[in-house]
C-alpha cells in the first residue's frame, strides 16, 4: 500500500521536517543561476535592479525566464530523491507507487485525458467569445517554448507531486497513522503555496478554493490509485497545455503561447466549477477505468500495525 511504504519506526516526523528544510535549501540553490543572470544584466548592462516579481519576470525574453525559473525545480527534485534515500531508506519507486514498477500507461492516460479536456474547453470558450483573445503565434519562439516546456515543465510538476503527494503525504501518514490527515494537510499546504500568485491579487482569496481543491483532487487520485502516476500525468498536462495554449495579459509571467487572453479575471462560479463539477467527473472516469473500491477506507481509514508490517 502506498502510504504504508513510508511508515517505519525510524522515520520520525522530525526527519521529515529536516528533509523538508534540505529540499527548500536545494530549491534556493537552484535559483542561483537566475540570480546570477539578473546581477550580470544589472551591473554590465546598467539595467535597474528588479524590486518586484513583475519587473523580474519581464527582464528577459520569456523563454529564457521560463528556463531559468524551471532550473530550481530540478535541484529540488534531486533533493527529494536524496532525502528519501539517505534519510528514510526509501527508493524512488516506493515514493512513487505501490506497484512493482511505475505504470507509465497511467501517467499517459491521465495526461492525454486532461490535455484533451483542457484544449476542448478552451475551444468552446474561444468560439463563444473570440474577441477576448488575440492570436500570439510566433513560430520560432513557440517552438523554443515547446522544447523548454516539454523538457522542464514535467520536472516542475513532478517535483511538486513528489513533495506533496509523495514525501509529505507519507510523512504525515507516519505522524498520524491514518489517511485523512495526510490528505487534508498536503491539500492545505499545496493550496497555501499559491497564495502569492498574481491570481490571488486579481481575484481575491476565493481562488484558494481552486488551489486547495486541486490539491485535494490530486491527493484523492494518489490514495485511491495507491500511487502518484495519475497525479503526475494530470499535473504535467495542466501546466504544459496552459503554457503552450493561452496566457493572460495580466499575469506576471507570460509565455509565447498561441493565444493571449485579454479578459479581466473574475471570481465567480468559474473559479469553483472545476472543483465541484469537473474533478468529480474525472474521479468517476478514473474509478471506472481502474476499478476503485472502498473509498471511505482508502481516504479516511486508519493505518493499522498489520498493514505496516505487511
UniProtKB/TrEMBL annotation:
Membrane-spanning ranges: 21-44, 64-84, 107-127, 139-159, 180-197, 203-224, 236-260, 266-286
Highest taxon above the source species: Bacteria
Signal peptide residue numbers: none
Keywords: Hydrolase, Membrane, Metalloprotease, Protease, Transmembrane, Transmembrane helix
Pfam families xref list: Rce1-like
GO biological process, one term: CAAX-box protein maturation
Residue ranges of every copy of the CAAX prenyl protease 2/Lysostaphin resistance protein A-like domain listed in the record: 143-241
Molecular functions (GO terms): endopeptidase activity; metallopeptidase activity
Name by which UniProt lists this protein: CPBP family intramembrane metalloprotease domain-containing protein
Record lineage: Bacteria, Pseudomonadati, Bacteroidota, Flavobacteriia, Flavobacteriales
